[in-house]
Amino acid sequence: MPCLYLSTNVSLDGVDIDPIFSETTKAISAITGKPESFVMVLLKGSVAISFGASKSEPAAYGELVALGGITKAVKRQLIATLGTILQDSKLSIPKTRFFLKVVDVSTPSGSKL
User: What is the annotated signal peptide range for this record (predicted)?
Assistant: First the structure.
């Protein structure tokens, strides 16, 4: 079951976050080959984040934990696709201000990809 935990310094008050949940779920499912019904997405806004010495510009940190199926190619595709979703969403988080940690828990020490 892939689980994506996203934290952002952007306030989610008044933002329709349903498309973010929908798009990230579909993308993770398609990229990892896991059914959408197995994908979990958590989203937290208004988190204090400093990125590049700036606390005021929109930024996000994500962790994706999966049980198998994470290769270097999958990791690259997840980072690019999720970065595009956050940039194009109402959150308007630039790809350059998004960091994603990808961990495959099926390997003894997590993925070193």
Answer: none
Residue range 94-111: average pLDDT? Answer: 85
Q: Does a structural domain hold residue 111?
A: no
Measured CA to CA, the distance from residue 103 to residue 111 in angstroms comes to 5
Distance CA 88, CA 56 (A): 19
Distance between CA atoms of residues 53 and 40, nearest Å = 31
| Domain span holding position 93 | 3-104
Model confidence pLDDT, tens digit, residues 30-58: 999 999 999 999 999 999 999 999 999 99
**Is 90 exceeded by the pLDDT of residue 106?**
no
Report the CATH number at residue 58. 3.30.429.10
Specify the 3-state DSSP secondary structure of 6. Answer: strand
Catalytic site residues?
2
